[in-house]
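Example 3.2
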Amino acid sequence: MIVYAESSGQQSTNSGSWTPIPGLAMTLPRGVGDSALLILNIPNPYAQGNNLPGGNFGLQVNGVVLNAFACFTYNEESPPAPAACRRRCRS
């Protein structure tokens, strides 16, 4: 059985703690067993700031954030704005 959820539109947060992504909550049906494979696909995330900005992504099960999480940071202290990055990355 495949259960699927997706979010659309621009997402943004300045929170220093875990913040749910709207539309990405799901309830697994009873009887699926003790295991589930969850895949979080975040295409082209972007963070703003002036101190090596980045982001963390985690999964929450039954109200508890799992120990495993994904993160990204920039190798530039102050990365360019998204439009400038797209122009630079294409050339």
